[in-house]
Amino acid sequence: MNESTSREELIEVLRKAPSVALFSHVSPDGDCVGSMLAIGLALEKMGKEVSFYNPDPLPSYLAFLPGSSRIRPDFPYPQPKTLLFVDCTDFQRVNLSLSEISSESTVLNLDHHISNQLFGHFNWVDAQASASAEIALTLINQLGVEIDRDMATNLYTALVTDTGCFRYSSTTAQTHRLAAELLDLGLDISGIHHNIFDQKPLAQIKLLQCALSGLEILADGQLAVMILNLEDFRKCGAEQEMSEGLVNYAQSIVGVEVVVLLKEVGPQEIKGGLRSNLWLNVNEIAAQFGGGGHKRAAGCTIRLAMAKAKQSIITAIEEALKSGRDH
Amino acid sequence: MNESTSREELIEVLRKAPSVALFSHVSPDGDCVGSMLAIGLALEKMGKEVSFYNPDPLPSYLAFLPGSSRIRPDFPYPQPKTLLFVDCTDFQRVNLSLSEISSESTVLNLDHHISNQLFGHFNWVDAQASASAEIALTLINQLGVEIDRDMATNLYTALVTDTGCFRYSSTTAQTHRLAAELLDLGLDISGIHHNIFDQKPLAQIKLLQCALSGLEILADGQLAVMILNLEDFRKCGAEQEMSEGLVNYAQSIVGVEVVVLLKEVGPQEIKGGLRSNLWLNVNEIAAQFGGGGHKRAAGCTIRLAMAKAKQSIITAIEEALKSGRDH
User: Fold this and answer.
1) What predicted TM-score, i.e. pTM, was given to this entire model?
2) Same structural domain for residues B76 and B171?
3) Low-confidence ranges of chain A (pLDDT < 70)
4) CB-CB: which of A166, A198, A213 is closest to B166?
5) Same structural domain for residues B249 and B299?
């Protein structure tokens, strides 16, 4: 596909299209769903036919989003000539094969990931944007559609979820300016936050309790270790993915620089999730166990029994903490 | 004191004053301290002598605020003629007696609480502001002082702490516009958030684990009950005030409408903290036990042993939930 990056052409294609199919990525999150819905609702206001696609079921915390019940896991038929991919780094993110796309279709790609593969005929990729919602809002404004509360609810949810409530370092002055523009429409932000953040399964809270009950603080208070065995998940009635975010609790303890959560996923198979607060490069530690990630967040799989896996990773972290202090 | 509410006169007094003493309230929080420091640093930039007062020690999570080490618990001597009270609803909030204030002093009162007593000679009270920081930023702009990073760090911290990261319903479009103005100065927001939110004592995390271990879900999943006995605090090495915020965890469970945390504070003395999510009026429930508060957050003291206190409040809540559904 031609790698033109002209946002003006993308806008022009949308303006002229009588019908548009919108696509969002697997494991849907607030940004891909909210941005897709907001753009779709805006295109509908312009009189276009619109369809929404996502390959996976929507997580329950996003079910309140206006328009969300219209999202389908099937490729729209008949296939519109204009296809807009929202928040997808590459074509694979939507679980479709290229052969399903008609050669007559125009592929539009709107995203904020720096790793975006510019797979569209026309691409609007802005890695400075904290969320695809920032681009979506600019697009809707440029299409000349007046933002309504349904669109604003979708876009605000997208901003909030992708920036961790304006906390992540990706948040910019522009993010806040766009949030202000949305709040001008009189959004019920307490209601939105309740829908997004207060829908935790009881099993997840039980799993938190379980992880905290075994919390160990080592290395003069700099290292926090949490363990979850298969039996813990069974006991709490929790799914594996519910351990997501548990490290944050240990990370917020004063003096803690690094946290490791060791999760038993099978016999002799331990998943290690690592986070650091200020300086320790956990990517290097994960790499020692064949894993990787980023400086402040990384992971690895250790093929040992829990006790041995725990001992090895604690030793590696303690050494890294020590050599860090020596520098 | 004369209850003039003219902000123009307040600004004029500050403009002319050669030295200003700034005051913030007992149990200092991010807003009173951050707003006070930002205004003081701005006045200093105008060439004025400035002193900062707070009766209590600063919580450790605010120690990173530029200028915070200059805050003193003593009334400044010699007493400047201009005294500015920041974020204080009334004069008692600073633990000073009126007699300590010279009759020649001009008292200025800058606040965002609707219950403000307009105790100053000149008052700038705006109950629409999500934080006193909103007023402080407007004031600094009107004084013609260019905001620098130190002031911005103070003001951003004040905004973030008083709005729960822009989540509370007090947050407005204007709050986000002011945040944008501050972020334009290139703040390190991850660093600020780490300082504010990731400084929890280990004892507090242990108390969370303890409270969650006894979590009960009743009334078809609508009611969550948590218990903390004196022995739990002792075991965790936790202070009473560390139970603050624990209700939030139970409140975020899907389906839960109301949470009660019962805390033993002495023999036959149980403090009940109540929160509701969407509709239940917990103020009415607290009132049945001689307490009170707001619709969504209230408290009471029950003079019974824990088991009996628990049974009575559960009965009261279950009845309220039932009659709510009947309406």
Assistant:
1) 0.87
2) yes
3) 1-5, 325-327
4) A166
5) yes
